[in-house]
Amino acid sequence: MSSELFNQQLLKYIGNSPTPFHAVRNLRELLDDAGFQSLPEEDAWELKKGGRYYITRNGSSIIAFVMGQIPVEESGIRMVGAHTDSPCLRVKPKPELNRQGYFQLGVEVYGGALLNPWFDRDLSIAGRVIVDNGEGKLCQGLIDLQRPVAVIPSLAIHLDRDANNERKVNPQTDIPPVLFKDAKKDIKDFREVLSEALSHTSTSLAGKKIVDYELYFYDCQQPAITGWRDEFISSARLDNLLSCFTGLKALLESGDRQTTMLICNDHEEVGSVSACGANGPMLQSLLERLYPQPERLTRIIRRSLMVSADNAHGVHPNYADRHDGNHGPILNAGPVLKINANQRYATNGVTSAIFRQLCEKADVPLQVFVNRTDLGCGSTIGPITAAMLGVQTLDVGVPTFAMHSIREMAGSEDAHNLYRALTEFYSYEGSLLVEDI
Hints:
Layout: H1 3-15, H2 20-33, E1 37-38, E2 52-57, E3 61-66, H3 72-75, E4 77-83, E5 88-99, E6 102-110, E7 123-132, E8 138-144, E9 178-181, H4 190-199, E10 209-219, E11 224-226, E12 232-235, H5 238-253, E13 259-265, H6 282-290, H7 294-302, E14 305-309, E15 312-313, E16 336-339, H8 349-361, E17 367-370, H9 381-389, E18 392-397, E19 399-401, E20 408-411, H10 414-427
Parallel strand pairs: 1-2, 4-13, 4-14, 14-18, 15-19, 16-17
Antiparallel strand pairs: 2-3, 3-13, 5-6, 5-10, 6-9, 7-8, 7-10, 11-12, 12-20, 16-18, 19-20
Helix pairs in contact: 5-10, 8-10
Keywords: Aminopeptidase, Hydrolase, Metal-binding, Metalloprotease, Protease, Zinc
Cofactor: Zn(2+)
Organism: Porticoccus litoralis
């Protein structure tokens, strides 16, 4: 697949996935189209060699896997991990604010968001809504208003002369979005506003009593190929829907000889501690269900490898001093091995060597990122999964600018190169163990 076609599909996927719920729904549709079978966790399963399956949890995490033809005790499992969530603004349970005659919504900041870029954007709302179907039964569905319904206006420079020198954002008082004028203060419950909006849509939620919701604001601006020479991708949620989609496309190309798995967890941006997060039981319970004999599972895990795919910090030309001089990844120069001596990333010499060899085999350029020693380092699901399962793990990602902004930037060649590397990894029939000499 050409990089141009790959990027078209990538940007379409990200644009249609404003929340983790939508991201998983869209992954499910692609898996269904490819012949994968959904396995409800509450049901009994009958699996077969060569079978292609997936499970979901909370509607926001998904694990897809192929039961390979090669005995898994010989091959191990080729795993790729990513996450479906991104920093954003989440609507509070009782969000109604009416100030100076304007109706606003109180929001919580989800994850480590850069807040300044959220000002003066055309914002919409998407997420999950739980309704009473009229017979006392609770049902859930997804909504996406798909149009600008709110703005967080900046304070004019005339009223804040120091804004360009030291603009601090108070997340409680400065960022409630403005939705409309409500001079008479008639609106007491946001559910009324939401119900009215749903009544003008074709969704099956229309006309139902809204019991609860999980809703998020997002930027209406669509993903785009940008740059004078079309060298870049600009989009919300590149961290980390880019890796979710890239891992999926690689999985679909890998065939059924190897046992392969794609894990896309929610809640990475807030620590991964949840029923469907990487620091929860979802992956381990699946593996124990597939391979219930402890000794057998230990042998399989020992021959397996997890590639944690999460975006890396590209060296910013205006702030190059924030990088180690020998480890500044460049956009469109290939995916990035992420290394940290304090185990914020799970890469070690062995897993690094394996991935280097795979990239060389696939003719994919590879870079290395190490944080400046005097700066703190972020982390990923890689160390969490390695600690939970004891599986050898490495961290890799696409170099990115403006990580955790409302709009991030990556190279237009890098996601395709990561896809090629992950396809090689999924299909590789050699051993993933490095022998002693």
